[in-house]
Amino acid sequence: MPLISMRAAVQYEPGEPMTVREVQLREPEHGEVLVRTSSVGICGTDLHFASGRFPYPMPTILGHEASGIVEQVGEGVTTFQAGDRVLVCDQMPCGRCGSCLSGRMVYCSDASGKQRQRSRLQINGQPFRQYLGVSAFAEMMLVDATGLIQIPDDVSFEAAALLGCCLTTGAATVFNTANLRPGQTVLIIGCGGVGLGASQAAGIAGATRIIAADLEPHRRDAAMRLGATHTIDPANADLLPAILDAAGGQGVDIAIEAVGQPHLAETAFAALAPGGHAIVVGMMPPGGEIRLPAALLRHGRRMAGSVMGEVRSLQDIPAYIRMVISGRLVADDLATSRWPLERVNEAFGHASARRGIRTMIEL
């Protein structure tokens, strides 16, 4: 099968700089789509794998929060054609397993996608593993058609990329996992892309108090612009008492941990009112433990993890796109810096330092 040569940022070892070089990508087979990359957000997940906090087979090409233009479609693909503007979501449901049929597509049990990910990329004739079915820090992406969603002309490629992961994760956590009801009080710990998606969704869903906690003042300011009614600087306040004070002393109904630190998940749970629900969407470190006071388990308090807010990607993301178009959901403002592929290592340093909100790679 003919191979396509392209430039990509290859991560050879965790904790080491990426190398921008030529790699080869095969042409699309049945059910696959070749996409020319336009914009990619640097997600916290990418930072974790790049640093080695979470193991992943290497070499690989990181990046999964992406958008672009369809170049070529494989056999059997009828929903896309060359020239379509699309976003990529790494949730690629098979539509046939029990999880998919029950509406919990993020827990799809079909493993065939992982097999396809082993055959798409090569360096000098040697295949290597694709990252999360996407590998977006490259001029081209070869993905399953079920991971693509068409975007209209009035949605920017940057906004679309963010809807491929962080904004959707935050919004879906509120709408799907939390099932937030009007009048409830919400706590959001971490005001990066996910947290700001959650704060906006909480306002849309009718929360009357939205408490946002983050160490960075510019992120707290962004949270206030995007729906939060109270903000807390954990560096200058004892976090749990400050949360309870902002909640009127009664605790919160919904608490979302969007950082990935066990002690923050414990704080989220401790801040719950009776019947409250704590949701962990931040990636917890391997081997990490969350300790919950037994007494607080009474009166209906509960904690759960959530993958991407249990998004039903092919149904929910088009709705979020319409919300962006109508102005109800802000996306473009979250893309606060832009870098070419050649400066990907500088961009990762910028993102690791939590400067701005979302650091973007533009191709």
TrEMBL record:
Gene3D superfamilies xref list: Medium-chain alcohol dehydrogenases, catalytic domain, NAD(P)-binding Rossmann-like Domain
Obligatory cofactor(s): Zn(2+)
InterPro entries xrefs: ADH-like_C, ADH-like_N, ADH_Zn_CS, ER, GroES-like_sf, NAD(P)-bd_dom_sf
A cellular component annotation (GO) from this entry: cytosol
MF terms (GO), sorted A to Z: S-(hydroxymethyl)glutathione dehydrogenase [NAD(P)+] activity; zinc ion binding
A single BP term in Gene Ontology: formaldehyde catabolic process
Keyword list, A-Z: Metal-binding, NAD, Oxidoreductase, Zinc
Residues of the Enoyl reductase (ER) domain: 15-361
Family of this protein: Belongs to the zinc-containing alcohol dehydrogenase family.
The protein's name in its UniProt record: S-(Hydroxymethyl)glutathione dehydrogenase / alcohol dehydrogenase
